[in-house]
Amino acid sequence: MSTLRFAFVPASIGLLAVAGFATPRPMAAQIPITSADLGGLPARAIGPAVMSGRIAAIDAVPGDPLTIYVGAAGGGVWKSTNAGTTFEPVFDEHSQSIGAIAIDPSEPRTVWVGTGETWTRNSVSIGTGLYRTLDGGETWQFMGLGDSERIARIAIDPNDPQTVFVCATGHLWNANEERGVFRTHDGGETWDKVLYVDEDTGCADLAMDPHAPTILYAGMWQFRRWPWFFDSGGPGSGLYRSTDGGDTWEELTNGLPEGEKGRIGVAVAPSRPNVVYAVWEELTNGLPEGEKGRIGVAVAPSRPNVVYAVVEADSTAMYRSDDLGSSWVEAGSGGRVRGRPFYYAHIVVDPTDHERIYKMATSIGISSDGGETFGGIPSSPLGATVHSDHHALWINPDNPSELLLGTDGGLYISQDRAGTWRHVRALPLSQFYEVSFDMEWPYNLYGGLQDNGTWMGASRSRGGVRSRDWRNIFAGDGFHAFVDPGDPEYVYVESQ
Length: 496
Fold this sequence. Notes:
This protein is an all-beta fold. 1% of the residues lie in helices and 41% in strands. Strands 16, 17, 18, 19 and 20 form a five-stranded antiparallel β-sheet that branches. Strands 21, 22, 23, 26 and 27 form a five-stranded antiparallel β-sheet that branches. A four-stranded antiparallel β-sheet has the order 4-5-6-7, with no helix packed on it. It is globular, with a radius of gyration of 24 Å.
């Protein structure tokens, strides 16, 4: 009797494995395997969680303990009611790619989720619209915007929870009209598109003045991805402000760079809302300003007026306004604020100190002087490190020393204002690019992960497969991994 083994790779909880048995038949009598043949085979969760995965959105309810909601790039929404000790998935049946999470400030059991990650790398998934729960994640209701594909931010009026604004980034690979800033006054029953530029431009970021929620700021972004190229920026990009609750908008230009712009992130200082910060991707005739690295160029042989260029550049600048966005000045030299503008365009201001700013990047940038200078996370006396590529940050408004950080390696928690961090090893969010298996009994699984190396794990283990049954066998971004069929001691892996 031989064994047929099948390995499946859903994005939500890492790997599932099933195994079935079949008697070999002569070649001429083989019967094709269909989905009906596999329908009765149960699936087992086998992890892993030890390395976690990319997190795109975080929100939490202050308290002792914290209630935390985490939105993954490819693993849905997870909830913890014990400050991150354990998590449970609460959103798997709707969408796996998450772009935004917002908890109603007046009713913490009401949570809005915008699907579709907006950190638009070339391996990003799409969403299915906007959802809301009224019971802390037990049940969810679809609230519209199903063709937006990507939602970057949700802002809820603290004085009127029926008024909600949604920042819809839109399609990545083609034009569409369901993008821009949307508003509801009836809790999501109906929506008005209150800020729209064109079918190539979506909303990349949205910030609401917490003390005067009729004042809003929106970063509009023109972008498009092709299999061979990514175009960030164009005439559609710009920073806008509304002072009448979204009825009318004006583009902000005083002190900001002229010409075409790329992705823009914006944040209001909660403790002094006349202070507004913006991170700005600058372009020169469509090409990045500032220092550049390697540049590749090619001419289309059939149409020589078409030229393609790949430019390695770090061209993000930070601007500051002290008058509600009416005028702006560039804040310092940028420091750690620079780096991959389309992928890192999120800034968070300390809720009690308007001069302290956190800028997401490969390594998080921290400024204590209003953006004039930036430093990084201090070296930990315990030698602990934080995974690179930071995308989400939540700061406890009641205790700004408590931070939740979302990276490509999972969730980290700090209790000392970013001095030291604890990695939460309870979120099975690994994103497998490829998976394979060997011929051992029980067999082992091998797979390459997005930004988390290559791993080997058991298909079964006494008491169930646990994180300790997985081990890292290579670093970097993992892709294919294959075992030599003649000698299982040899494993071939690849990385970028």
